[in-house]
Amino acid sequence: xxxxxxxxxxxxxxxxxxxxxxxxxxxxxxxxxxxxIHEFILIAPAMFPCEGVSWHSKSAFLLYHWETFDSAxxxxxxxxxxxxxxxxxxxxSVLELLLKGAFFERLAHRKFRENSSQLDKDKGGxxxxxxxxxxxxxxxxxxxxxxxxSASIYDKIALIVDNPKFRPRIKTIIKQLKDWEILxxxxxxxxxxxxxxxxxxxxxxxxxxxxxxxxVLVLKPDEIFGRKKVHLALLDEYMKYLKEVMDLxxxxxxxxxxxxxxxxxIRANIKEKIAVDNVTDLLALGFSPKRSYIxxxxxxxxxxxx
Length: 306
Hints:
globular
């Protein structure tokens, strides 16, 4: 098989025609959530344009932020092509990237490490804190390095990060992020995020009715052995959760980076992009103001910043 035939074969297997069908059926909704993914990646650069504002101090989050964008993009494409289980599995990874990026960002900074009572209730969390505290105690310069370049935390924990003994439970991480006000102003944030995580985990854990065959058996059992097709109910379900994850993601992003808003140049930079009155259009999430946590976040800061 030559290169041209191999390429054509793979293109066929990607089910690009399903992508066209998805766009035809839900063009406006897909456009909105696609734009939201792009807004997520574009807000951060707008927060670091002027002298005196270093992105290095937030680099632990920004590394995961970039990965989140790529994974969210790919998740959407998989859904549009009809690979719904793959799309949901990737979406769970997107949510976890957001949570872990915010968690390691805060953990890199002394004042948050010293105020992390939720980690003290978790064996993995206690071990991780102890490990970092011992490093900074033995070499005080490490603490200063973490303050300046938060991504250096990944170098410090490289030897133990994959060890279950040093791994706090995701539920603990969510509770700690709530205590650190990273999930503000979401009401009952820990319960909301944990519920979202559990829903998306069903696809990761390949629960029978969450794999593709299980989904199709419920919707169109006569199509179970046919080629993959667009199923509107599954596409709509996916879009619902993608919107929720991106709404949450932008709130986390704004909470992590909001200290930059004290600079006039950055306030001017970001004001038009995420103006409260236009947030549902500019971020294109399609939520009503009462549903959008981004809206609530910006409204809470409007008097202080804008």
